[in-house]
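User: Before I run my own analysis I want an independent prediction to cross-check against. Here's the chain; please return only the structure tokens and, at the end, one sentence I can use as a sanity check.
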Amino acid sequence: MPLVKRETTGPAGAGQDLSAHLADLTNIDPEARWRAARALGGRAEAVPALAVALGEEQVARVREAIMTALMRVGNAASVQVLLPSLRSQDAAERAAAIEALQAMPAAVQPFMAALLADHEADVRILATELVRNLPDADATALLCALLAHEAHPNVCAAAIEVLAEVGTQDAIPALEACARRLADSPFVPFAVSAAIAQISGTRQG
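Assistant: Structure tokens:
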């Protein structure tokens, strides 16, 4: 189920206080946990409890509600809670985390250099998706820095795809260098040619 922004009904729900919602995050009833997560959306003081709840939650619907709550807080602490989900074996959890993180680009941006240098190629690939929502110049700089040293063809392909959509013409030298370095790859040079054509045709800097 895709993660969606929930409608706002008030930060804590009428007539209910923070402590009650925090307590309900550990309620045996999944519906109560889901309601608590929704009520705690946007409340920065709830981030530590939401972090614990996310680490323990097994019900996908409740987990998504917790991620939505963290997204509505939208600060660095929320980002730090969501980042471990990028390593989850559950594809739905990874997708929900990406969607939540994409919704708060300003908070995510300070973490991008480290994500793009992560030792796991799969994390680097997912990180390229987070770059899409950054300002074009920042996205270009981050992905060009990645391409300058990246050896994994699939990571390069993911970065090239994003640069084709959001990159400025400053990306062209890095793309050309990547194509030369990975000339033996069956798809990287072709992807670079397509990206350069798209950048040159649609962006002027």
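Sanity check: Residues 4-15 have pLDDT under 50 and may be disordered.
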